Each structure stands twice: as C-alpha cells, then as structure tokens.
Amino acid sequence: MRRRPLPSEILDFDSWAPKGQAQATRPGGGLARAFGAAPGDRARCLLGGRRKGAREAWLEEVLQPTPGRVEPRCPHFGMCGGCALQHLDPGTQLEGKTRPVLEKLQQVAGDFEVLSAVPAPCPWYYRGKIELSFLGQQLGFNRRGRFDRLVEVEECFIGPPENRAILQTTRAWARRHDLPGWDPRANRGLLRYLVIRRSQATAQWLVTLVTSTPPAGFPLQELTEELAALGATGVIHAEHNSPAGAVRVETSRVLHGEDRLVERLGRLEFQLSWRSFFQSNPPAFTRMLQEARCWLGEDPDRKVLDLFCGVGTIGLSLGGRLVGVESVPEAIEDARRNAGLAGIPAQFAVGAAEEWPDLACDLLVLDPPRSGCHPRLLRRLPEEGPELILYISCNPARLAEEVETLQPFYRLSRVRLFDFFPQTPHVEALCLLERRFGER
Question: pLDDT band at 53, cuts 50/70/90?
C-alpha cells in the first residue's frame, strides 16, 4: 500500500518549545512544532502526526528567515539527535533559550535580580566527553528520536577536537576486521560504544572501547597501537553484556597509558576516569564557579553542605567547612581523591540527599540531576533548611517548579544563566535563595 503524501502548510513560527523546536499556531488553529525552525521564520512545512499537543512538522522551504539564521556547520544537522540550534548565530541562540527561563521564573517568583546571561567561551569543540554508538558497520550518534538507527558522522563539531581522527581510525579498524556493531533490537553484536574524554586544561585524552565479551583473537592490540600513535593518554577496554542501553561496565582494563586525566577548574585540579561525572564544558563551568564565589564571598568558617556533590567540584571551589553527599559511591571516591589533591579537609559520604539526617549548615548547595530534588527533601527545607541556598540547575522547568514550592519560605533573590552547551537548547541556571524573615 502506498503511503499518502504528507500535507503541506505555510507556518509562522513565534515561540520556542522546550526541546529546541520552534512552535507555530496553525492557520486553522492548533499548534505545530519543527526542529530547524526558529521564531520569526515563515516556512512551508510538511505536517505529521500529533505528539504532546502539537503536530510534528518538517521544513520544506524557509520563505522568510528570522534575523540571526545561519548555515549549519554540521552536514548531519537535523538528523543527529545532538544539536538543535546550529542554524542560529550565538547571540540569537543565547537570547532564545534564556528568555523563556527568566519569564517562567518571574511568573512563579516575582521580582528578583537578573544578571546578564553569560555566553560560552567557545561555541565549537567544547564538550569534554562524547559517547558514540556502533550499529552494524556504522559508528555515530542516535538519529533524532530513535534508539535503533544511527547517523554515521565523520566528525562531531562540539566534541573534543581530536574526535575526527579517532573516529576515522576506529571505523577503519572495525571494517577491516568486519566486526559487527550491537543490534539493540536483537540484543546481539560485539562493538557497543566508543567513549572519548578530553581535558580542556591539559589536552590529555582517553578512549574507551565498550564491547560485549569478545571472541578469541579479537584484534584489540592493533587498535590500541593506532590510537596510541595518535597521542592517546590512555586506551581502555570495557565489557558490557547487559541489554540495557546505558553503559553498565562489568569489567575494564587499561590497554595503554593511564586510566585517568587531569582537569582544572580555576586553581583546583581533578583526576577523572573515563566514567567520572564532570561538567562537559569546564571553561564555562569555571566562569559559573567564579560568579558563585563573588556572590558568597570568602568565609573559611562557613559550614557548607553540598547534597549532590558528585566528584566535589562545586563544594571544593566555594571554600569553607565542606560536607559533601552523593548517592554514587564511585563519585565519592573521586571526591575524596580530589580533596586530597587540593589539600582541603572536606568530608564526603555516600547517601541520598533526601535521607541525609542533618541539614544544619550556613550554606546549602543543590545541584540535582535533571529530575530535580526529591519531594521529601523539599518538604524538609522549610523547617530544617539554612538561611542561604545556592541552587544550580540544568533543567529550568523543574527549577521553576521547585522555586514555586519554596516560595512561602525562601525568596529567589538573584539569577544568572550560563550557556554551557552552544548549538543545543540547554542552559544552566545559577540561583541564590534567601530564607524569608521569620519563616521557619
């Protein structure tokens, strides 16, 4: 049966949707959303099915472009699930993804001090870590909206600058030996992921090849030697046999060089393994930490409680008497190592933020995952929380919900947004909340 052609319609885009799509009100009513469009565009679009309250749309032709539209640098833009805003210049990107965040916060929190948004130091080759997938004979990133189809890329323009040579070398090796990539539908195959991590401060880089258990004669040494010749600081092989999509390593071993690299944030050094959680854009993160220190000032006697401390980056950068809490044991091991490197006598413990027994401190640092803080923690803050909360958020929608929940007890006093992820719709928020007088 032949598919019916999709209907075509001229749309005037006027706002942003949360995931980097532009949104338009259709001439006959209802909403449509399209990747690759921008507010201010008039475009002829193909219309697909309805999803989350709006018709999906695909650009056929931009009839009247918005100011700030540019030619995307990557030939895979629009298909790859990574970048959504390469068709806009940096200033237009920054304004487009920060204005809705501030508008939403003003709706729930009223007046607060807004400092100008901070652009990323560099719009390209800024990510310190990327993870690529194998599928059949392909090596690349997931196609937008699909777990079982890849976009094969020659180079990622927001990944580490060495990624082009690493991809070429690894892809040629895999094809030379006819090594099958993982099939996520059949749950079989050999090659699964290629993870590249690079230090912005030292230019060291690690490559990790993740496979299922390999057969005898697997030519790992050949790839190791080729990557070492490119300048790899370390080459690691890890095994992952679970059908789960997320990398769950069962065993790993170093094939060449080191298993860690050194990254710096300001005056502090951090040792990172290929699996360590760390901000993907260290220069932008350093700028945020400098801002936080300016807001808070220096106080070596201040008791700081960092409830989502990860490897200790934020708490160690702020100074004071630090207690860090994190649910991932490996991250706590890294945090203790990093505190030792810095000569800072901090305390770190494994635990869930909402279950930490004592919230008494001078400053509470919250940098939760995208899902935000646990409701139990939010319920405890009115009675047990301190005078000041420094909240760092990578999910502005969730941030607004939590600020609204805390409004009767805490006032949002200051906000500054930072672009950690150029070419994407993501933005990072630095917020200071102060307890309302007499509210406890």
Answer: confident
The dihedral built from the CA positions of residue 383, 387, 392 and 397, taken in this order, carries a sign that is positive
409: buried, middle or exposed (CB in 10 Å: 19+, 13-18, 0-12)? middle
Are the CB atoms for 156 and 139 separated by under 8 Å? Answer: no
Picking from 389, 416, 421, 418, the residue whose alpha carbon sits closest to that of residue 405 is: 389
Q: What count of other Cβ atoms lies within 10 Å of the Cβ of residue 111? A: 9
pLDDT digits (tens, 9 = 90+) for 184-228: 888 899 999 999 999 999 999 999 999 999 999 999 999 999 999
pTM above 0.85, yes or no: yes
Tokens 């050999």 belong to: 190
With a cut of 70, say whether residue 438 has pLDDT above it: no
More confident residue, 52 or 422: 422
What pLDDT shows up at residue 439?
A: 62
Catalytic residue among 74, 83, 309, 394: 394
- Active site includes 394? yes
Could you give phi then psi for residue 421, rounded to 5 degrees?
-135, 70
What confidence score (pLDDT) does residue 2 get? 62
| b (16+ CB within 10 A) / e for 316-339 | bbbbbbbbbbbeeeebbbbbbbbb
